[in-house]
Amino acid sequence: MVVSVRSLGLSGISGYEVSVECSLSGGLPSFEVVGLPDAAVRESRERVRSAVKNCGAKFPVSRITVNLAPARVRKEGTLYDLPIFLGLLCAADELKALPPDAAFVGELSLSGAVRGVTGILPMALHAARCGIRSLYVPAENAAEATLADGIQVYGVRDVNELVAHLRGEAPIAPAPVWHPVADQRPLPDMADVMGQENVKRALEVAAAGGHNVLLIGSPGSGKSMLARRLPSILPPMRYEESMQTTEIYSVAGLTDAAAPLVTHRPFRAPHHTASPVSLSGGGTIPRPGEISLAHNGVLFLDELPEFDKAALETLRAPLEDGVVTITRVSGSLTLPSRFMLVCAMNPCRCGWYGHPSGRCTCSAPQVESYLRRISGPLLDRIDMHIEVPSVEYDAMRRRTPQEDSAAVRRRVDAARSRQTERFAGTGITCNAYMPPSMIGQYCALDSAGEALMKNAFDRLGLTGRSHDRILRMARTIADLDGSEQIAPSHLAEAIQYRSNNILK
Ligand SMILES: Nc1ncnc2c1ncn2[C@@H]1O[C@H](COP(=O)(O)OP(=O)(O)OP(=O)(O)O)[C@@H](O)[C@H]1O
Ligand SMILES: [Mg+2]
Ligand SMILES: [Zn+2]
Hints:
Layout: E1 2-11, E2 14-25, E3 30-34, H1 39-42, H2 44-54, E4 63-69, H3 81-91, E5 102-104, E6 107-108, E7 114-115, H4 120-129, E8 134-138, H5 142-145, E9 152-156, H6 159-166, H7 197-209, E10 213-216, H8 223-228, H9 239-251, E11 267-268, H10 276-280, E12 281-282, E13 287-288, H11 290-293, E14 298-301, H12 309-313, H13 316-321, E15 323-328, E16 331-336, E17 340-345, H14 364-371, H15 376-381, E18 384-387, H16 393-398, H17 405-422, H18 436-442, H19 447-460, H20 464-480, H21 488-496
Parallel strand pairs: 3-4, 5-8, 8-9, 10-17, 10-18, 11-14, 14-17
Antiparallel strand pairs: 1-2, 2-4, 6-7, 12-13, 15-16
Helix pairs in contact: 2-3, 7-17, 7-20, 19-21, 20-21
The structure holds adenosine-5'-triphosphate, magnesium ion and zinc ion.
């Protein structure tokens, strides 16, 4: 007799349907799992065997074959424990047929408790798409599964509870649909930063248009402090953005069981010892890297020159395309990674190059070799190169009240609304992601602007890419100003963010 139990699998951050087929046949007792299982799936046998015994059922003494279809796709993880368990009970007539529109995922402990798994949200979304009406998941994953519309979710704590439910003896109540509540946790605020008006303005422009920023300055000038206050001026996440980012967090096992939806734009700040894999994703069981976890948010690389060169090089393609491709033995995998890059660095090894105190001890070639650690192609992808001067004594001591993040954010939001309207229906969210084909239309310059651009192009030795990036920034500055036309003053400000005395 062959029984088939519906389940789900995960490929990258997409779910797909898996059919778990169990067959009992005569012959020497054995228990085999086929259909490209990884080690964790093969180990299911021991967990299932023990869980069957612990729930009081008899473990079938026959030749057991479990096939995970489609057999050509590699199956990973422990989530098939539960469907294999159910398949065995049905094949052994301990349970009647399962509802045809139900699917099951979950890891089992030896005692039959159902443990949480990763990637529930993308699997639940797929279940809803392929006609599954009820989804049985580990209790701790239930809230997350209810984010998918159109399916009834049951959170299961242990197999006894599930068996009683399926036999109609003691029904489990469907999990209540989880609704996000406004997150009131305060974020670090721009009002804490004294002075630094120019840098704050640059961050406002960056937040308004989604542009990449590099902050350069001596130790203690406030670079890390400023960067960490960026989330407080970013526009709120739209629901679709929250769902996309939550899918990635789900696969990485980082969702919060009690509040599963990511509602704050991520701010990821990996340490400079991060490996290429931890930054861009990968591994035997592929996990999203920091650049995918920063999707729809900020990737902050503090002490940029200390990062491994190979790790930084992996950022190049994602910075252009908004996706990262991970190559694996079994084929390649594409994950979303559309993030705002914010970097901070000192101008030289000792840190004080250009400081008014003159205490830099580096020779000119030393300064140059330090700056050369950041490759040209990476620098070219960073729109704004901002010098952070040492804060002046007066500004620091006077402690006059500074503009708070809420006020900045109102301007950012207004500029974003203009962009949302401009790009309606295109899937583009902000000026930074405007494709070259739209630049002609939305970033037209008047004759004074043309002259300014030509002069800057020659003087700064711009590339085609940096030319386009300046135009996108100018578009954002005009949006902050509420202007449809890019005026020469808007363009001049954008150009200034690109010309830097230290990087030249
Ligand atoms: N403009 C400022 N207003 C208020 N506090 C400041 C300012 N600049 C620096 N500070 C104080 O100095 C501390 C150090 O700043 P921060 O860590 O941001 O410096 P940094 O530029 O990142 O230095 P490093 O190059 O050493 O990493 C801050 O935590 C804050 O207490
Ligand atoms: Mg710092
Ligand atoms: Zn120095």
